[in-house]
Amino acid sequence: MKRTSLYFNAPRQVTIREENLPPPGRDQVLVQSICSAISPGTESLIYRGQFPPDVAVDASIPTLSGEFGYPLKYGYSLVGRVIATGAEIDPTWDDRLVFAFQPHESHFLASPKELIPVPGGLSAEEAVFLPNMETAINFVMDGAPLIGEKVVIFGQGIVGLLTTTLLARFPLDDLVTLDRYPLRRQVSLARGAQACLDPAEAHILEELKKRLSIGSDLTYELSGSPTGLDQALAVTGFAGRLVIGSWYGQKRVNLDLGGQFHRSRIRLISSQVSSLAPELSGRWTKARRFEVTWKMLAAAEPLAFITQRFPIEQAAQAYELLDQCPQDAIQVLLTY
Fold first, then answer.
1. Over the stretch 42-76, which tens digit does the pLDDT of each residue have?
2. In degrees to the nearest 10, what's the CA dihedral of 85, 90, 92, 96?
3. Is it the case that residue 325 has pLDDT exceeding 70?
4. Which of 28, 112, 190, 221 is the 20 to 30 Å CA partner of 235?
5. Crossing angle for the helix pair 158-167 and 130-143, nearest 10 degrees?
6. Residue 317: inside a domain, yes or no?
7. Are 10 and 70 in contact (CB under 8 A)?
8. Helix, strand, or coil here: 153?
9. Residue 284 resides in a domain
10. Are 29 and 328 in contact, with CB atoms under 8 Å apart?
11. Which domain holds residue 326?
12. Do both 163 and 258 map to the same domain?
């Protein structure tokens, strides 16, 4: 049979190719894709050619093995339905709705261990948020918010908004978010932020410091902007925690460490979802985190974050939108 697959060919060039796909092997299933989510942060870096050379795409995901370089199939958030199974596969897999860390393509072969069954009650479009919700949960776990703390989040893209959604459930003293785009600021407030500000406003740091008085207890840098990291550092209080969830690719970060930082005892925490914090590994596994992720997705009403849907044949328009008009998009889906 034939499938359609998305390829990044060069900076700002994506194409859809038709490829031959063999029948499933004895220990494989064939999945027909329903939708996949574009990661606006990581995939924008790939689209623009801003990924670092000689770095593994994602060593924790078998379908994303190898190093960054064109042409590249990429994507890690796809939901589809099993439409055929090999002879050795349990027949209960037939017609099952499944999630896969899979590049954008209309069909693919997989072993059952590479698939995550979608719990009953969740639609394909809700399930496609699994990786971003898992990332948001990882940020919260790494930040370890305490009752009564002041929390600041720089960046209200989809992961930032999901992090806000989770943190709004905590008994915090203050939850302040920042983003350049009015649409995201509006949604952030609707999701529980007590204030959402424009980080590009004049005197924004002075305004934040006045509001926070002693600085933030816990700060998240999720904007993908090196400038955001410097601002996040500036508003974090003495002995505060700064969780860095952004991946900057080739963008260089210039930090002002010559002022109060030397005496601030601020902890900089690198947070990435492919691993669990070692101090949690005695009781937590990725399987347990997935269970929590599904529960949080059911409560988070993520469909409200979808701003555009494009058939995979129009994927070039989707990436052009994210590149040229990011203010108009939160979560963009490809459909099949």
1. 899 899 998 766 665 555 556 555 677 889 999 99
2. -40
3. yes
4. 190
5. 50
6. yes
7. yes
8. strand
9. no
10. no
11. 2-128+301-335
12. yes
| 3-state secondary structure at position 35 | strand
Phi-psi region of 200 (alpha: psi -120 to 50; beta: other; left: phi over 0): alpha
Say how far apart CA 192 and CA 183 lie, in whole Å: 15
Examine residue 190 and state whether it is found in any structural domain, yes or no: yes
Distances (CA, A) of 81 to 84, 130, 151, 247: 9, 16, 40, 31
Residue 178 has what pLDDT?
98
Domain count, the chain: 2
- Residues in contact with 195: Cβ distance below 8 Å, sequence separation at least 6, in sequence order: 174, 176, 177, 189, 211
* The pLDDT of residue 58: 56
* Per-residue three-class SS string for 82-113: EEEECCCCCHHHCCCEEEECCCCECEEEECHH
Q: Examine residue 251 and state whether it is found in any structural domain, yes or no.
A: yes
Distance CA 206, CA 183 (A): 24
pLDDT band at residue 335 under the 50/70/90 scheme: very high
pLDDT, one tens digit per residue, over 146-199 is 999 999 999 999 999 999 999 999 999 999 999 999 999 999 999 999 999 999
Give strand pairing partners of 5.
17, 105
